[in-house]
Fold this sequence. Notes:
Elements: E1 16-18, E2 21-23, E3 30-34, E4 41-46, H1 50-67, H2 72-88, H3 90-101, H4 105-122, H5 125-128, E5 133-138, E6 141-149, E7 152-156, H6 164-175, E8 179-183, H7 190-201, E9 209-211, H8 216-224, E10 228-234, H9 237-249, E11 253-257, E12 262-266, H10 272-284, E13 294-300, H11 307-315, H12 335-350, E14 354-357, E15 376-379, H13 386-389, E16 396-402, H14 405-413, E17 417-418, E18 421-424, H15 428-437, E19 443-445, E20 461-462, E21 465-466, H16 474-479, E22 481-489
Parallel strand pairs: 7-8, 7-10, 8-9, 10-11, 12-13, 12-18, 13-16, 15-16, 18-19
Antiparallel strand pairs: 1-2, 3-4, 5-6, 6-22, 11-21, 14-15, 17-20
The protein binds nicotinamide-adenine-dinucleotide.
Amino acid sequence: xxxxxxxxxxxxxxxxxxxxxxxxxxxxxxxxxxxxxxxxxxxxxxxxxxxxxxxxxxxxxxxxxxxxxxxxxxxxxxxxxxxxxxxxxxxxxxxxxxxxxxxxxxxxxxxxxxxxxxxxxxxxxxxxxxxxxxxxxxxxxxxxxxxxxxxxxxxxxxxxxxxxxxxxxxxxxxxxxxxxxxxxxxxxxxxxxxxxxxxxxxxxxxxxxxxxxxxxxxxxxxxxxxxxxxxxxxxxxxxxxxxxxxxxxxxxxxxxxxxxxxxxxxxxxxxxxxxxxxxxxxxxxxxxxxxxxxxxxxxxxxxxxxxxxxxxxxxxxxxxxxxxxxxxxxxxxxxxxxxxxxxxxxxxxxxxxxxxxxxxxxxxxxxxxxxxxxxxxxxxxxxxxxxxxxxxxxxxxxxxxxxxxxxxxxxxxxxxxxxxxxxxxxxxxxxxxxxxxxxxxxxxxxxxxxxxxxxxxxxxxxxxxxxxxxxxxxxxxxxxxxxxxxxxxxxxxxxxxxxxxxxxxxx
Length: 507
Ligand code: NAD
């Protein structure tokens, strides 16, 4: 951070979005956006000044006055148009994403597509934001509920899904009648900004969507701002916990989706080939930088003999730049992420785990400066080892063994995190037992990364989440609205008067 303003005079600056205009920040603090496969500086991102953050919130507050009263159909049609624009620009969005984040082009399209599904869902807002009515709760009295928008809401996003996660946030917030201030990850804000351009092109009025950039100071300003009513955060457990505590103390509604340690159980009756493919894809895809990546596998009974085949499978994966055809594992996002992952591998060895496959310092022709670490596998991993206790967020898979499903479930439930988990088995009884007894919010049965589609909500649990409601689907309609109940009586000539009623009962 804080690269001198003239360090990369040729790199374009990322703009702020305030009051419907993309504007140059007046800040003196800038950071480079760097291609993690090549170290090429793609752009410079500003750390917005306190005045600019206030302007963004003020513009959202002003726009709320009219947006909250905009008819449902008008709001919905903006998102019908946005989904079309995202589809038309899919290749460009994916290319931007790969350049600044590193993941492969097909996976970048997946990142955009999983966000697009939320935009499609937001276009259904008319049926999602319905209230309820009970007729005749007392003589001539009806009660009904209305789900009203909160006001200015804010979103703070991580680096690993720079398209999907902003799209988890602003479409549903805005479709429900709120206005929004987004603070994207300062590591890869470019694809997010392109999505915001498309959102304006789709018809989002000036001030309804605003974007500020920055890091800790910008996030703290959002947590403290009196005019922001709700915050959706996705990122690490440490920062999310801070955001939850600080913003809750300031009276805001907050939801934080945070770090993870996702375990899978492999039963000996599982389909071996399908299972090994699923494990390798979910552990090493996106270079392990998914909050739902499988990072620990508990091999039950005879499946412990499959380790050599899993290693062979991992060795077949191609490590290269995300734009290269056939690449399976791209670079990790930054040089500091690379040294953290390499350091954890070193700690794993020192802690006594068995390094079955060492992916450090792979030879990647044409990308010698990239932040690469290849698929890495440890066996004999136990709680207390750093590779188990910490979220590695790199292409590192840890293995341990268990005698039976009960021991495996007990092992997973003892871990504090609750983001995702999966079982691989051909037994319906084992799968059902797992589904019932596992204490993790998102469960896969022969599905390694069980991220629900937006007909449902993202339901991470325990240490992976703070706040009750998830970031999309039905739950987020509740998050972004305040339920108001109205109890109404209309008198007509036939209404019998009961005189003065001094009781709490409706008569
Ligand atoms: P991060 O917590 O470092 O950053 C998230 C956001 O917080 C960014 O916008 C960043 O600018 C801001 N931030 C960073 N440091 C801050 C500080 N000290 N004070 C205030 N704000 C700060 O996370 P990341 O490295 O960008 O993303 C990876 C993490 O996100 C992983 O832990 C991953 O599991 C988690 N994640 C969780 C989910 C989920 O749904 N549970 C989804 C994606 C990512």
